[in-house]
Please model this.
Amino acid sequence: MSRESVARALDVEALAGCGLPVSVRDLEGRYLLVNEEYAVLHGLDATAVDGLTDAMLIPRAVAAAQAQQDRCAADSDGVLDTVEWTVDRVGRRRVRVCRVVLRGEDGAAYAVARITSPADANESVLRVAERLARLDGGQEGPDGRAREGVASPEVIEPTARVETDASSPESELPRRCGAAETNGEAARLREALDEACARGAEHADEARILHEALDEARARSAERAAAERSLREALATVGQRERELTAQALALREELAAVGRRERDAVAESAALRDALAEVERRERGA
Model:
């Protein structure tokens, strides 16, 4: 059902001044219509909510709990009055929510309307819900008064109320509408627990893989450190050998210089001996 069709069916303009947030969702949880109070509370454009769901706006656990209550309302014939958790621009808080199932001309449910107020609100929210139900069924006249012979819808309260830690609205269980709903919720909670355990096992595997990778990285780092240490030692050995070779080369150069000097001295002695022999020969010829 379109937003315009819902607006025409409910005459929502008549509720514009009620001062309470009003929202309408189809049976799949998609928004069809909200009034200005609800739009401001959730930071929405009241004219552009088609297709949005609670899971897009608030924690999924809270959205799931509220959707459960919508299903309870859809199975009833009156106004479902509950106190539950919600999350909006005000923050986490407990609110009173009255739900009215909206039905078409054939009597089939097509949407659920929620009227929200503070948890300690007076009966004004219930009166708004009852009026909304009469508008939907054509039971209220244009002057805002119930048509003659038409009774107000029955107010249905959940048969079981379950409270959880007030500091964690995401963990609060929804109001139950009967033993069957409780069993269904328990099954869903078991499934959620199994899924959480599976995710925990996956995280444990990921952590183990990360630890192994870290150990491998540390081992590679130790190997690199050992290789760097060996390289430094090798470089030190090469440096020491180079200094020794330099010293040996210097000693060889000095030794070569000494050999050169001795060679020059031998040449000089040889020349002196030749001169002496020549002198002896001259003397012998002269004698």
User: Anything to note?
Assistant: The longest strand covers residues 91-103. Confidence is low (pLDDT under 50) at residues 137-183. Strands lie at 22-26, 31-34, 79-88, 91-103, 109-118, 155-156.
